[in-house]
Amino acid sequence: MIGAMYKRLMERFLDGPEFFPLRSRTSSPWQYRSATLALFAWSRGLAERFLTPAALALLPMTLLVLFYGSLAMNSPGRVLLLVIFAPAVVELGFGFWFRVRCRVRRRGPERVRAGSEFTLEYELENRRRVSGYDLECDPFPYAEGLRQLRPARLGRLPGRGRARIAGSWLAERRGVYRLYRPWVESSFPLGLLKWSCRGRAGEGRDRLVVYPAYMPLTRFELPVGRLSQRSGLANLARVGESPDLLGTREYRDGDEVRHLDWPGSARRGKLVVKEFEEEHLKRVAVLVDTQLPPNRFRWRSRRQAEASLEAALSLALAITEYLVKTEAVVELFAAGPELYHLSLGRNLSCLDQVCDILAGVEPTADCALDKLAPEVFSQLVEVGGAVVLLLGVDPARRKLVERLQHAGVAVRVLVLSEQPLELPEAWRPVAPTAVLNGAVRSL
User: Fold this and answer.
1) What pLDDT shows up at residue 246?
2) Alpha carbon distance 312, 284 (integer Å)
3) 132, 160 contact by CB (below 8 A)
4) Contacts by residues 19-26 (CB-CB < 8 Å, ≥ 24 positions apart)
């Protein structure tokens, strides 16, 4: 029990304060959680929580004067020490009297597109009879990848009063971000110390999904194969959907009674039943590869590998949207540290689930395609065609494509790479920069 508690505390310490995000908090194939870095984050985070930048700038000089004054009892530096501490006493007295005590609620979007701006709204309610001054909501960055453009600030909040303010942010990178609880702080009156309060859990959205930025496709050639299949309407069709009506015929033994056409039977004087044609579905699988090479201490290679992954996820989202618009049923597979599988019906409302999945996909250094268990592969070969997005060419990736082809699946392979590669016949290279710049509109 003590060991488990120590492990939880150590994990919490390595995460750093929630209002001072660390790069090591995000998972990646080259992740390393440093205790020294976590200690630095906690020290700097706690200092920035209670002291303003002006106070942090004056802190070294104050410590130096305090040290010098403690050594020389009759030093004139004692007068300078009093001059420095006088504003601190005023700040403590007036700041404590006008300290902020607010109830804050935060509202914002559930998901946004990478590279877009979004707005967070705050509803403040002063719980004291004393007015609050120089208020700012959520002054700390949420995480790396979310940048504040315009802070949510309020000059004065009357006692027992209410106000609504808003701030704008920029979603720079894809990901699933955890937002800390709503925060309000004030540096009144002299701007040296911070007085803050936090909202309760559940009073603001604590999760933001930033899905990949993509450019909708105008044309996409599907792999030629068994694209039309008779199956699954009961499992994949929308509410109210039914097979097409061909006509009527005379009733025969064994026909469904619920298909009887009573008006037609009355006109003919004998029982007739309706004939239906079962709708044929166009099912396509989209398989996304997330395997990246391990970090070799080459910053440029690492950036190119990450750009290839982002381009693959953006292209997967664009292809999925195009297929759903063309009334296709899509089986999405994303193989990373975790295997994601999502079956999409023929309506655009399911794209939110695709955005949530692709936003949280992380790279892996292992062979991600090996995670396709036999039962998942059996579902994969039931579709008529498959679109495979690869980040490279190696024997494991070639083997997967060959297995699909031997199973009778028509496969179209797209390789995301900036470098020229020797690709098998019918494999098409796609430049990641062209995808990220929105230049790829047809494939």
Assistant:
1) 64
2) 17
3) no
4) 19/45, 19/49, 19/140, 19/180, 19/183, 20/44, 20/45, 20/48, 20/140, 21/141, 21/142, 21/143, 21/144, 23/144, 25/143, 26/144, 26/175
Q: Is the pLDDT of residue 282 over 70?
A: yes
The alpha carbon of residue 253 and the mean position of all alpha carbons in its chain are separated, in whole angstroms, by: 57
Q: Which two tokens stand for residue 438?
A: 């929105």
Map residue 8 onto helix, strand or coil: helix
Alpha carbon distance 380, 234 (integer Å): 19
**What 3-state class would DSSP assign to 129?**
coil
CB of 109 closer than 8 Å to CB of 118: yes
> Hunting for tokens 């607010």 — which residue is that?
102
Q: Residue 354: CB partners within 8 Å, gap ≥ 6?
A: 317, 320, 332, 342, 344
SS3 169: strand
Mean pLDDT of 246-255: 77
Would you place residue 163 in the very low, low, confident or very high pLDDT band (cuts 50, 70, 90)? very high
Query: Which H, E and C letters describe 178-244, residue by residue?
Result: ECCCCEEEECCCCCCECEEEECCCCCECCEEEEECCCCCCCECCCCCCCCEECCCHHHHCCCCCCCE
- 77-97 and 53-71 helices, crossing angle to 10°: 140
pLDDT in tens, 121-157: 999 999 999 999 999 999 988 888 899 999 999 999 9
Q: Do the Cβ atoms of 387 and 285 come closer than 8 Å?
A: yes
Q: In the chain, which residues fall in CATH 3.40.50.410?
A: 283-436
Instruction: Calculate mean pLDDT across residues 434-443.
Output: 88
Domain 102-211 carries which CATH code? 2.60.40.10
> In a 3-state reduction of DSSP, which class is residue 176?
strand
The label of the residue with tokens 């403590």 reads 92
> According to CATH, what is the number of the domain 283-436?
3.40.50.410
What lies within 8 Å, CB to CB, of 36 at 6+ separation is none
Domain with CATH 2.60.40.10 in the chain: 102-211
Instruction: Looking at 20-169, list the stretches that DSSP marks H as alpha helix, in order from N- to C-terminal side.
Output: 35-50, 53-71, 77-97
pLDDT at 232 over 50: no
Q: CA-based diameter of the chain, in Å? A: 122
